[in-house]
Design a protein that fits this description.
The chain is about 40% helix and about 15% strand.
Length: about 290
């Protein structure tokens, strides 16, 4: 295991010194990224859906090559997916576990190997807790303030209406950070929290370009051919594309598709996130 270092106050990331309750101590394991990198916290449900996993991986992979650090909490679920997607995309990732940094107490135990890979690939683990401190119920919201504080923006991917991810979102707003949220199906309780955040003013995110623009980058969406655009479409998605030769009202599309109502509504939400379709003035059309 790599050495654990106690940072001197002058080594603390500057954004963490600006929050209402700045940390008094900070321990690191691995290399703290450069101060000129842009930190993006990515959090979400522990009980994620395939939709949540897919959109998380898509958004993070689209940030490849940019000076962005992915911040998350090493928890099982969306945190782990975010860390893994960042590593796969060649991005630096930083983890704030709800425990000390020694492997004897690192939480969760199932992510010890992931934690080591984060360090091996140029990232680090950070905690204000002593290295041998075991995780407690209060240590998780406590670390959430550090995740929000160090980041320029917080991206929420799937969160139920009562969720720890929403605590992080509220802290981000308190610290004057941007809150981004991925819209989800009205039929999924996993999206109740994110959809509510959007109603309250969070920035809706449906593509990596949305994330990049929210972080201050100037980007242009590339024009794709139909073959490129539909390359990863499922059989059901292609069926919808074929039916949308012209804009159709949602109820009519459901009727002629022959697909179960709950299934097609979830499918349409996914397709809208993938920017294959758009609903305007009561009609759905291809993009």
């Amino acid at each position: 295991m790599d050495d654990i270092y106690k940072l001197k106050p002058e080594q603390f990331p500057k954004p963490l010194l600006e929050i209402p309750q700045p940390p008094k101590t900070l321990y690191t394991r691995g290399k703290l990224p450069s101060a000129d990198m842009i930190y993006l916290a990515v959090v979400g449900s522990r009980k994620y859906t395939s939709y949540g996993k897919d959109i998380c991986e898509k958004l993070i992979h689209g940030l490849k090559g940019y000076p962005i650090v992915i911040v998350s909490g090493l928890a099982i679920g969306m945190d782990s997916i975010a860390h893994r997607a960042a590593l796969d995309a060649g991005l630096i990732t930083v983890s704030f576990p709800g425990s000390g940094l020694d492997n004897s107490v690192l939480h969760p135990r199932s992510n010890i190997r992931l934690a080591q890979e984060i360090v091996d690939k140029g990232g680090c683990l950070i905690s204000e807790l002593a290295p041998s401190w075991k995780a407690t119920l209060y240590s998780f919201p406590q670390r959430n303030r550090l995740m929000a504080g160090i980041s320029k923006a917080v991206l929420i991917i799937e969160a139920e209406e009562k969720s720890g991810s929403l605590i992080t979102a509220r802290m981000a707003l308190d610290y004057n950070r941007d809150v981004l949220a991925v819209p989800g199906s009205a039929f999924s309780s996993n999206s109740d929290g994110t959809n509510k955040l959007i109603k309250q003013g969070a920035i809706p995110v449906t593509s990596c370009e949305d994330v990049l623009m929210a972080l201050g980058f100037e980007v242009e969406k590339p024009e794709l051919s139909d073959k490129e655009k539909y390359a990863d479409c499922s059989k059901e998605e292609m069926k919808i594309i074929e039916l949308l030769r012209e804009p159709i009202e949602r109820d009519e599309l459901i009727r002629i598709s022959g697909i179960n109502t709950a299934e097609i509504n979830a499918l349409l939400s996914t397709m809208e996130i993938k920017e294959l379709i758009k609903e305007e003035l009561g009609e759905i059309r291809k993009i």
